[in-house]
């Protein structure tokens, strides 16, 4: 019974070997991902109770890598972990023996099928390091020749926004990507650094002659240096640069001043982000106005008592408008995600 | 007379210990720090229980274990170009040294095997994506609780793509680490599994009478109050020619910078800095 249905013609399906066996926990190799991080504890507890009462009803799917005595799990990590817990608690089945797990044995998956399965697991884990995910996504894109976000979303289950973030990481040369793969968290550059830095780099390299002369890699080096020297205290502070630039759109002298400041920011290692750009961002006032606008909008809508609208055309029109509002709010909400804590960003 | 015999035996057994030369003078200096005849007798008893792996023995174990593993993998359908050997620690530490030793002794490069540093995430991603199906073989000189190994493995496995069986080649491993790796599904090929019973200062060992053990533990506490029996209180007795594990009792390892207590098997990092 294949569990990985190929969603792309190039992805080979999982091939069953025709064996259904009852395996003890000792015969199974756990995944390197801890399901306690991947799944909600109440859900796991519920499943464990169920297995304690009835045993494992749905077979897990396993394969045996060449040369390895134990079976690796392709599907059913939660059921396996629950049985491990029960075995450790000396729980026995109805036959008085340790619980065994029914398992469909399949042939080892191809690299791409295995990768797609890993994606489906990692989607549950918000804190999964993004750079390894990006590198895996690159392999999927190259092997299946798929680059469209919607198609990649269908294949991997990653949201289009996650895919976009991964693609941003892949725009940086390998020597910079390596900095986010440093095993030491103290010296590792967080993946978010690149994502937040990318628009600033694009702006500087395209619009500022002296940064263009430096070259993209040297300009990137300057930003890394600044980050290590705590002159960029939080990766989220890059947004202040872009915000300053956007806000000066209709004011030519101000725009020229912002551009000059961006140039100084790249060329002067001592210049700190907020120190350089706070003066251009009248943050509080705009945010306060936006908060007030949200509150007024909600109050007005409530006042109209729209819940009982009966006219079909009106209802449809209103629904369309609400969807548009919802879409904008979702995009804005996603854009606002991220931490402003310097400690959090440097971890 | 007894002291002389013990010293001669120690010099003979531990002659290639690299961090600090074991000589008649160093053994004498070590034993004389213990003031009573009873304490000295206990120390000699402990020293007798050291399981020492010389360079030659280490190399022989690694090569033999590797030959057997490669043969098993070949039978399972994995040619040598499908084998990726990975060191799990910093360049100057034991794991890369063992990998270098095995690589040369077993002519692994000529056979098409791949070699990687476990910290090189990008390299792991690229090589595993290229090989797609094979075996990952970790190399180290000693595994105690397995904590350090598990941390290194968790990091590098994030970047593995494809289907790989996992093995650890190691001259010696503690039974605690062996059990842990077995649970994780990493097959261990070791020359020696270091049982708790082989460690005189371990609470599960009966190699020494309880008064003697308590006395030695007390001495260890005075030398290193926070790590008297080594990392996680493992009290291991394996010493490798290249370095003693951080889990050996303090009486063997000595104080930090070897002051005030001079150890017979200090680790490189325990030695005083020469001016």
* Helical segment count of chain A: 17
The percentage of residues in β strands of chain A lies in: 5-15%
Order of strands, widest sheet of chain A: 1-5-3-4-2
Sheet with the most strands of chain B? 6 strands, parallel
SSE succession of chain B: HHHEHEHEHEEHEHEHEH
Largest beta sheet of chain A, briefly? 5 strands, mixed
Distance between the termini of chain B: 37 Å
The low-confidence parts of chain B are none
What Rg of chain A, in angstroms, do the CA atoms define? 26 Å
Report the strand count of chain B. 8
What's the mean pLDDT score of chain B?
94
Task: Quickly give the structural class of chain A.
Answer: alpha/beta
Distance between the termini of chain A: 43 Å
Question: Topology of this structure?
Answer:
The complex is a heterodimer of chains A (347) and B (275).
Chain A: E1 16-23, E2 28-29, H1 35-38, H2 41-54, E3 60-63, E4 71-75, H3 77-88, E5 101-106, H4 111-122, H5 130-144, H6 149-156, H7 160-170, H8 174-177, H9 191-207, H10 209-214, H11 216-228, H12 238-247, H13 252-267, H14 273-277, H15 283-303, H16 312-336, H17 342-346
Parallel strand pairs in A: 2-4, 3-5
Antiparallel strand pairs in A: 1-5, 3-4
Helix pairs in contact in A: 2-3, 4-5, 5-7, 7-9, 9-12, 12-13
Chain B: H1 2-13, H2 24-32, H3 37-48, E1 51-53, H4 55-75, E2 83-87, H5 94-105, E3 114-117, H6 121-131, E4 133-139, E5 142-143, H7 147-157, E6 163-174, H8 175-184, E7 187-194, H9 210-223, E8 238-240, H10 250-253
Question: What are its keywords?
Answer:
heterodimer; A: 347 residues; alpha/beta; 17 helices; 57% helix; disordered N terminus; disordered C terminus; B: alpha/beta; two-stranded parallel sheet; 10 helices
